[in-house]
Design a protein that fits this description.
The chain is of the alpha+beta class. Helices cover 36% and strands 19% of the residues. The protein has 5 helices and 6 strands. Strands 1-2-3-6-5-4 form a 6-stranded antiparallel beta barrel. β5 and β6 form a beta hairpin. The chain is globular and about 50 Å long. The protein starts with 6 loop residues before the first helix and ends with a helix. This is PEP-CTERM sorting domain-containing protein.
Length: 231
């Protein structure tokens, strides 16, 4: 016998509720820095203790006016949307997020990870990231290396990135998402410290553990209802 039609939406809503739960949070240990502007983060766990995003990744600062975490310090972060950690109006946040994803796809590997990466290239990449999170208004004209809170002060890498950003701005769709990295926006629970972009591999971008628990509960409930209906 088929389940009554009214039962299915109930079971589906149980599983779907995980996506709209309270803002998820993670805790991790901040480790050694790379090029002065990123740091490793390990032992990442969700609030319930389950491993988060594969357990480790890299954090890149996006709030230049606050402190960078100390090495080997434990920090708790809320996983938030782009609008929560950038200065642009909420309407401009989707484009800012797309531009950030484009920036990582095109410059993160060469300026932060490669054998030729150094403090100058790292600074240039991070300064471009600050430009997007601090001065961006939704328009290409706001990505200006000569004005605003973030401006040119010696990094040729920064000038090169900014030029490319402006040249490609109109061709970056709002829906652009990195295929090379999974990016999460983090807000430190201690406002003394910088907000971050968490960088992991796409495969590490797993759902919050609560999603699995609620999905399993929904499937068990569905199985039980089917058995009763057959009887």
């Amino acid at each position: 016998m088929n389940l009554p039609a009214r039962i299915l939406p109930l079971v589906m809503s149980i599983g779907a509720s995980a996506s709209f739960a309270a803002t998820p949070s993670i805790t991790g240990t901040v480790g050694a820095t790379e090029n002065g502007y990123t740091a490793s983060i390990t032992n990442m766990t969700f609030a319930d203790g389950a491993s988060a995003f594969g357990g480790s990744g890299t954090i890149v600062c996006i709030a230049p006016s606050t402190d960078f975490p100390d090495m080997n310090s434990v920090h708790s972060y809320s996983i938030v949307d782009a609008a929560s950690v950038i200065s642009a109006k909420p309407a401009a946040a989707p484009k800012a997020q797309a531009v950030i994803n484009w920036l990582f796809d095109n410059y993160y590997a060469t300026d932060m990870l490669s054998a030729t990466a150094n403090s100058n290239s790292g600074y240039g990449f991070n300064q471009a990231l600050w430009e997007i999170t601090t001065d961006f208004t939704g328009k290409a004209s706001s990505l200006d290396s000569s004005s605003g809170s973030i401006f040119y002060n010696g990094s040729d890498s920064y000038l090169s990135i900014m030029s490319a950003l402006k040249a490609n701005f109109s061709s970056i769709p709002v829906s652009y998402t990195s295929t090379q990295y999974s990016l999460q926006f983090l807000s430190d629970s201690d406002k003394k410290y910088q907000n971050m972009v968490l960088v992991t591999s796409p495969a590490a971008a797993v759902p919050e553990p609560a999603s699995y628990a609620l999905l399993a509960f929904g499937l068990i409930a569905l199985y039980g209802l089917r058995k009763r209906s057959r009887k």
